[in-house]
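As a warm-up, study this chain.
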Amino acid sequence: MSLSKFQLQFLDLTGLEHKKIEFPLVWKQIHMHLAHSLKYKPIEKLPFIPAEQEIDSLISGCNTQMSTFLQLLKETGARRCEAFNLTWTEIDFVTNTVRIIPEKGSKPRIFKMSERLTRMISELPKKSGRIWLYKNSFYLSRGFRRMHKKNCAAAW
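Now compare it with the structure written out below.
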């Protein structure tokens, strides 16, 4: 089977060598070459980072448990599950420190708490060994979304 002039030009443009092979195999090579060279590359964007005043207004608009949790995240930079799994034994009120048990292969950390965060945590009810009264992190995130939605609606 001979290739037409158009097919030969297409092969030259794509950089494929025209060998004496069956035409369906040539199209397979063309398809593989084009699929490899035309991969989608997403545009990298910077993440949205709210101003500290916006974070503080969000924290102040939440209930006691959620505002304490958000303040802890703000001051320590801990992951959500690391902060959610905190127990009362990991909080030291004498030295105002909190020990973060690692998650995802990171290392354990100790952070100094502000007087405000220490006061907020000490005012929480001590009903169990865990600090937060939420059953699991799903209920925590659902409560956060509801409060965030309510605070955004109130701002407008």
